[in-house]
Amino acid sequence: MNGYLILAIIGLMFLAIYAYSYRTVILEDKKRKEIWEKKRHLEMAYNARRKERSEKRRQKLDRFIERSKEIQQELLELKNSKQIQAN
Q1: What band does 81 get if pLDDT is binned at 50, 70 and 90?
Q2: In whole angstroms, what is the distance from residue 42 CA to residue 24 CA?
């Protein structure tokens, strides 16, 4: 009976030593995962800001093109009204 108790204590001791030494690997993996998550989050935020800026540029260009068309139309109408007045 005492032999099993001694073997159990020795086994637990080796298990504790193994767990203690493996703890650094677990902590390193956890830290690596946290860094990866943080980097992923920052990249997603950067991409979202980039997409938002791109959308604003597109909207600004659309407004510019629309205004340019309006100006061209007004110039054409002015030209036509001058031709009518000249006749």
Answers
A1: confident
A2: 27
